């Protein structure tokens, strides 16, 4: 058992901030923070992702559509799918679960 201290807490660093809190052989967990008005410049990942919005509001844009997101929302993005958070109207903090573990860009 391990308690993930600080997971899901917004951290203000410019332009964005990703901090990994856990890595195992099968998954990784981290917190992605985007400040109000920030630009999400991520590119597709090789891993499936689950995002849990802990604070803030934005729009998630994918080829299959857009979704307004806010606290408590849970989002699944399959590996290799283009996606981006836009219109960040409140400081956004997301718990991000990667499977397999995040390999970087």
Automatic annotation (TrEMBL):
Entry keywords, A to Z: Isomerase
SUPFAM superfamilies named among the record's database cross-references: RmlC-like cupins
One Gene Ontology term of the molecular function aspect: isomerase activity
Keyword Isomerase: yes
Pfam families xrefs: Cupin_2
Domain Cupin type-2: 32-96
Top-level lineage group: Bacteria
InterPro entries: Cupin_2, RmlC-like_jellyroll, RmlC_Cupin_sf
Protein name in UniProt: Mannose-6-phosphate isomerase-like protein (Cupin superfamily)
Organism: Kribbella caucasensis
